[in-house]
Amino acid sequence: MIDARTIRNLSWVRKATTIAAGIFALQFLAMTASAAESFETPTLEHVLTVRANIDAPLSMGKTPQGERRVIVITGGTFEGPGMKGTIMPGGEDWQLLREDGVTELDARYWLRTDDGAVIRVHNQVLLGPAAETGANRYARSTVRFEAPIGKYDWLNKAVFVGTLSVESAQRPVVVTLRFFKVN
Do the Cβ atoms of 91 and 104 come closer than 8 Å? Predict the structure, then answer.
């Protein structure tokens, strides 16, 4: 049987629990505010410009996700601070043209530096719907490199983003990608 004393003790336990929860919440808010005050905004550093020559798209046709096509990367050049070379032929750019007008690109290819190193590139791009006349089409990417340990190992140890533009009047068609290290 619960008597008046037990009820008073339970009431005190509830109050103590409420006070402890309040203190915890205040400490959490203080930590969050402290973290927000020290929030660091990343900066970008240009590391590489790639000019890739590409073939005409080969369409697979309509799939449940959208229209799928592939473009062969036939070669090209690249240059950045402390590195330059050629794009090895045989890379592929798989594309998905979605119903909402957005195009997803998933390109994989290899760079050969002037000093003989081979660097694997995996670039994933999001192209917004076709822009209105005079406006730039949204084109941003995330890129991952796989480089040999040594001179180019720094490519394995950072996050990179990029931009893309197409020079379709030129033959062969050239895609220009500019890659930036997120500092």
Answer: no
